[in-house]
């Protein structure tokens, strides 16, 4: 995902530098999921599809698949889901829509171990049971000061794109380290959503911008 973004930025004339603050790793998932009676599959992260075993995808592929946005929908189609609908890019809004489409019926939720609970909470509150299937975990990536200085060639970053709350939580202490502070003291921070931006509180001030819609474009 980061490599794809780097390519898009380079095509638009920027000088992108990759500094992944998290990594995703697959989790073991039982192939014989008890999905009888499930009405739909929900996916709020493309990583949930990328890390799902082929046997799990095959067991769910015939169910209507509701993806939170364009990137997730593309990943779902590529994985083999037969009927994929593309949501508005917001998990809460997708939960409300699903609750109206499948009232009282079970939704299989492909997701990560670390996730924002609002999607499941809204469905459960609307009387829609959620069967969470955790396909991946999100781990923090730790860098010594020297590695960050080398990655940025010792030069301040003009802008940082922050696409997840966990990455934002990792960036905050990184940018506050005494040795690295000067690299980020004038940096503009671009957050994909207000929730992500809230995790950056205190390190950007007026140099924080939030996407109008939670998508990369």
What does this protein structure show overall?
With 217 residues, the protein is of the alpha/beta class. Helices cover 36% and strands 21% of the residues. The protein has 10 helices and 9 strands. The strands form 2 sheets. A 6-stranded mixed β-sheet has the order 1-6-5-2-3-4. A 3-stranded parallel β-sheet has the order 7-8-9. The mean pLDDT is 92.
Task: Offer a few descriptive terms.
217 residues; alpha/beta; 36% helix; elongated
Short précis:
The chain is an alpha/beta fold and 217 residues long. It has helices spanning 2-11, 46-50, 54-60, 70-79, 91-101, 118-125, 145-151, 165-175, 181-184, 194-198, and strands at residues 22-26, 38-43, 65-67, 84-86, 106-112, 130-140, 159-162, 188-191, 208-210. It contains 10 helices and 9 strands.
Produce the secondary structure layout.
Blueprint: H1 2-11, E1 22-26, E2 38-43, H2 46-50, H3 54-60, E3 65-67, H4 70-79, E4 84-86, H5 91-101, E5 106-112, H6 118-125, E6 130-140, H7 145-151, E7 159-162, H8 165-175, H9 181-184, E8 188-191, H10 194-198, E9 208-210
Parallel strand pairs: 2-3, 2-5, 3-4, 5-6, 7-8, 8-9
Antiparallel strand pairs: 1-6
Termini separation: 14 Å
Proportion of residues in extended strands: 15-25%
The low-confidence parts are none
Encode the helix/strand succession as letters.
Answer: HEEHHEHEHEHEHEHHEHE
Number of strands: 9
Find the structural class using helix and strand composition: alpha/beta
Mind describing the biggest β-sheet? Answer: 6 strands, mixed
Outline type: elongated
Helical percent range?
25-40%
* Rg over alpha carbons: 19 Å
The strand order across the widest sheet is: 1-6-5-2-3-4
């Amino acid at each position: 995902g980061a490599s794809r973004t780097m390519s898009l930025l380079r095509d638009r004339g920027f000088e992108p530098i990759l500094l992944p603050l998290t990594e995703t790793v697959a989790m073991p998932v039982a192939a014989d999921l008890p999905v009888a009676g499930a009405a739909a599959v929900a996916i709020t992260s493309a990583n949930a599809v990328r890390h799902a075993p082929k046997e799990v995808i095959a067991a769910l592929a015939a169910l209507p698949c509701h993806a939170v946005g364009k990137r997730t929908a593309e990943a779902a189609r590529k994985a083999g889901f037969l009927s994929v609908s593309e949501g508005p890019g917001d998990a809460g809004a997708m939960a409300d829509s699903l609750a109206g489409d499948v009232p009282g019926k079970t939704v299989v939720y492909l997701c990560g171990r670390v996730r924002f609970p609002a999607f499941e909470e809204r469905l459960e509150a609307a009387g829609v049971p959620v069967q969470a299937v955790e396909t991946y975990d999100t781990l923090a990536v730790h860098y010594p000061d020297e590695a960050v200085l080398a990655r940025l060639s010792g030069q301040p970053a003009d802008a940082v794109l922050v696409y997840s709350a966990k990455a934002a939580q990792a960036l905050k202490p990184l940018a506050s380290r005494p040795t690295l502070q000067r690299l980020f003291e004038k940096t503009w921070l671009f957050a994909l959503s207000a929730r992500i931006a809230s995790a950056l509180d205190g390190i950007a001030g007026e140099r924080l911008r939030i996407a109008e819609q939670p998508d990369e474009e």
